[in-house]
Structure formats: structure tokens, C-alpha cells
């Protein structure tokens, strides 16, 4: 679930000293307000104060550093050498850390149920999964801490441009969608993924088909014809296929469809960095909504296909039939990964549509309505062209 972020009010900026007058800053508490029911929730204060003006610094995709949105001060993010840990699936909840760094809370949409982990200073105004303003603070656990992440490389303006280019290429999209209001709720969200590692040993029974050829002679229309006929000799094969699967990536968000993620294009996972709360400043992260065990079930579906292909290569032959197999998995480990997306949800004639922009590459995928008028216009054009062609052919 994703939300808009509202900035804290600041005092006067002194151009001579290039800093904010801290004494003149308004003493405001950060609140979360549901606009529909007027309910207000206290949610804390800034996390990364600017050394110049005291404002909350945010991660800059352009600078790859913390930057103050008020006085533009830039601060380096220390990237000390940190081992990325992977946890045993059996005792995950006991051993894994739930400390995301700083004061984090879970915000939930009462309409679609999406939950997001945010800094306590974040003011959530809407849900980017369904567009609802019914978002409230909860007492839910933030869940297992991410071990690694890819920080945003694409900034908000580039995300908007990518969407405009994408939607302008959709001829049947209604003209209203090509206006800026569609992008007002574009939000940077880190989407949760789990990676799984596991050894596997698969006992299988298969059939290997080997082609061989025979020559047959027959008479056709008084002529002798020699034909080469292909046959298949089948042999039963039993064996063990062993492999180790590393970093099988699984989307563990129920609110972002796997197909949308695939169409958006993949990520360069070699750019993964150890998790740091600084990369989340100014952004939010969806809380995973698929459990570790259910995520492992999804991973096994991908692993299962890879095992079938491995057995096929091991058996060899020209043709292949897998009769049965049984797989034992061992040393199952996982880690929590955050990947960046710009996303928005918008309603068009009572139906919700989503679009995503890959926060690393800028690739776009999404859903959009088709304009009945444009579709009717295209059909009518083809009918008229066909009718004109018929008249020309008939009366020439």
C-alpha cells in the first residue's frame, strides 16, 4: 500500500546564512488524518534532521544521498561493510530481526486492506493500491526487517514522464487519462520480495525416447519409391537429480499482480545494497502480505519447473516423458528484499486501475480502460472503408 507524503511547515529561510531560522520554525506535531471521517492520529517527529535547517532530509534518487527538500543540503549515506544475513525458514520468526531502524509504524487501508511500513513522521493521505482516503495507523507489527534493497534511481519527475510516454502510446486510452491529474498520487513505494535458497534432491522415473530410422520401398503410380521412416525407441530411466537454488525471487505483495511486475521488467539484483533506513526516507515500503511459508510455496513452483528442465537434460535423448518424481528440500533459507516502484491507482467510471514504473530502470506497466468511442470510431472507419471498396468494385 502506498501513500502521499505531506511536508512539515518551516520557518523563514535566511539567504545570507543559507539556513533556516530554527527559532522561527513552527512547532507542529505530525498527524495522520482520514479526510472522510476526520479521525486524527499522532505519529511522531522527523527522523533525519537536516544539519543546516532542521528539516527532515529525504533520500534523493539523483544524488543517491540524503537531501533536504527545503535548503537542499546534501549528506552522504555511510555504506559500511555489512554482511547480508539469510535466515533458516524453520525458525524464521524466532531468529529474524523486526527492527527496521528508527520509529516505524504500519498504516492500513480500510478499503483494500493493504498495509505499509512508514516512518512515524509520514502523513498518509491516500492508498496508492485503490486510491481510497480511508488510511489509518495500526498497532500491527512491521514484520521481518529487510536485509537488502535497491534504492530508487528514478526520481518522481522522471517517473511521471515515463508514464506520460506510456499512456500516450495507448491509442484506445480515454483522453482524460493523459492529463496530469492521473499523476497527482504517484508515490514511491518499496515493494516486498523474499528470496529463497535451497538444496534439492529429486528421485525420478522417466522415459527416454531415441529416434532411429528404417527404409521402406513401395510402388506409387507404377514407380518405386524409397522412404525413410522415423521411429522412437523408449527406454525407462531412473535417477537422482540434485541442484542448489540460490536467490529465487518471489513477490510477496497481494496488491501488486505478478503479471504487472513481470511486464514492468526485471531488476539488476547485482545492485542490491544492505538495508538502511536512510534509503526509505521520503518513501514508504509495503508490508509483505504473503507469509514466509506461502512465499516458499510460490518459490517451489518456479523451482519445480527448473527441476523438470534439469531432469530433461540429465536423461537426454530425442524425446522425453517424466513419469513421476519426488523432491526433498534441505537447507531452506530466505531473506527479505525491498525493490523500488513508482505507482498509482486511479478510478475511472467506478473501476480502479493501477500502473507501475520500475524505480531502477523506468520501465512501465499498467492497466488502463479502453474508450468505447475510440473503439467504435475504429470499427466504423473499417466498415466505411469496406463499403467504399465494395461500391468501387461494383460500379467500376
From TrEMBL:
The keyword Transmembrane helix applies. Keywords: ATP-binding, Helicase, Hydrolase, Membrane, Nucleotide-binding, Transmembrane, Transmembrane helix. Residues 12-22 have a biased composition (Basic and acidic residues). GO terms for molecular function: helicase activity. The keyword Hydrolase applies. Gene3D superfamilies: RNA polymerase ii, chain L. Residues 1-41 are annotated as: Disordered. The chain crosses the membrane at residues 375-393. Residues 23-39 have a biased composition (Acidic residues). This is Replication restart DNA helicase PriA.
